[in-house]
Amino acid sequence: MLASALHWLRHFHVDALRVDAVASMLYRNYSRNEGEWIPNRYGGHENLETIDFLRHLNDVISEEAPGTVVIAEESTAWPGVTQPTDEGGLGFAYKWNMGWMHDTLEYIAKDPVYRTYSHHDMTFPMVYAFSERYVLPISHDEVVHGKGSLICKMPGDEWQQFANLRAYLSIMWAQPGKKLLFMGCEFGQWREWSHDRELDWSLLAEGRHAGVRRLLSDLNRCYGELPALHECDSEPQGFTWVVGNDNTNSVFAWLRWSATGEPLLVVANMTPVPRMGYRLGVPFAGGWEERLNSDAECYGGSNMGNLGQLTAEDSPLHGQIASLELTPTTTGGTAVTPGRNPEHALTARNNH
Predict the structure, then answer these.
(1) Which residues contact 140 (CB under 8 A, 6 or more apart)?
(2) Can 73 be counted among the known catalytic residues?
(3) Which domains does the chain have, with CATH numbers?
(4) Considering 20, 64, 106, 206, which one is annotated as catalytic?
(5) Is 46 helix (H, G, I), strand (E, B) or coil?
(6) Tens digit of pLDDT for each residue in 303-343?
(7) Which of 15, 49, 64, 73 is flagged as catalytic?
């Protein structure tokens, strides 16, 4: 197994490896009934040999292929999956955030009228978001075996499905954690993925599918350009809730922070009702700029927004020293940054 890993990394120059089903390796009693497993030498259910092997694997890869990313698909609360081996961890670079995936997909699949009762599905992942270094995954397991494509999970008519998809992807890119999106999701493929055929590239001739692809391209560009979106993924100081409990309106708002303290405000409205004049606290008064609006016409939206600019007033709110009014359009989000750094501004917004 070590030789196989190194062969992919050194000879094929693969950038990252995922180790599948780590949970089933770590526990001797994983999916086994009483009497079907043998305790370790200390009487516990931990598989000590597996722990040693995984640590050795990550140490060898770190030495022989520096810079390589090794990701664990680990679905339990095993501590220290991404902690260095010399500190008692398993030494993985990242861990799949399976809880985030299941909770957010369950939320987004609901009709917006019922999302008020499942508000915690979107907020609970932030309780443990900084316990490991995470990847936010939309994996092959979620778009095969009869589960349907990502856009087919979205409720409503076709317009609403695309609005929900743009909202979901925008939120995913704006939350802490690295991103993993399965092929076809980036342009809203209707058919479930199959290894027996190519992706439905012909859909890119249609405006809404091309709009989703363009949105992903711009989200990736923003992700690279805006330090607040990637610098402090695994650090609590990189994230601050502004509004996390407005289940009545199904609105979420949070601040992302760069390592040097540059803020990015993200707002998501997960209903088909525009929230005109919605006021939110921000850390600076003055001009704020929209960088990306996922309700823009070029993404297949209705072009409802804030005309690219907002002004925050010296009016404290939500624990911040200033506040601004904006219009989170239907099923979408907004992210803006102070105008003093106009290149640091993002808006994610979608319309039914």
Answers:
(1) 182, 193
(2) yes
(3) 15-96 (no CATH), 235-338 (2.60.40.1180)
(4) 20
(5) strand
(6) 887 878 889 999 999 999 999 998 765 566 655 666 533 33
(7) 73
